[in-house]
Amino acid sequence: MSLRKYLLAGGLSTVLLLGACNENGDSEEESTEEETVEGEDSEEASTEEEATENESTDDSTESDEVSFSGEYGDYNMTEFGQYTMEAEPSEEETEEGAEEAGPTELVTIEFEFTNNSDVATSPQEAFGLDLAVRQMMEGGATTLENMTMDLPEDFEKSAEVDASSEMIESGETVTAVVAYGPVDPEVETVLQSRENPMADEEVEPLDYTIEMEASEGAEEETTEEDTMEDSEE
């Protein structure tokens, strides 16, 4: 009788041990499946976020395009820049008390030009007839001068500057750069289309604000004024 009890007790212990092992195995499988599902969900969420970011980037690129179709040509602006032209040393002696000429700030515009007129014309000439670069002063708008030919020979995009003065036949397209100034970086600078009452068809006007950065000289003057005000207080 005692031997049978021992055998029965041993058999029950074995059954309980195997059952516990099976439960642990099932729980590990369930946790592995849950982790796999969570990983797939996180990957799908990240993929959706990336797609949303790409869509928003594409929208901003399209909205930043600046183009205009005028009487003398089609213009697709590809880049707006800013250039500081240093004053050339004067051979004449400067009068006592007179201020020396400082650097001149220019706004540069790179654009693709297509001549849609019937005659050959240069990109900068057509640009000046169809468009104007202005600064919005308190007393009204001031039209800036075309200073493309004043850019130095070592200008970064000298080839595009040279192309702006070359004659382009009707229907041809070329990339050119023009420069306008002098510019006060602290005043709003805009690119606007000129009104042409003699145009056969009415075109959509262009009015685009060009972002300018304050020059180093202006920043230094502002810093000095702030320092003087602080000292007076």
TrEMBL record:
Signal peptide: none annotated. Keywords: Signal. It comes from the Bacteria. Residues 21-103, 193-233 are annotated as: Disordered. Residues 25-65, 88-99, 213-233 have a biased composition (Acidic residues). InterPro entries: Immunoprotect_excell_Ig-like. Gene3D superfamilies: 2.60.40.1240. This is DUF5067 domain-containing protein. It comes from Salinicoccus sesuvii.
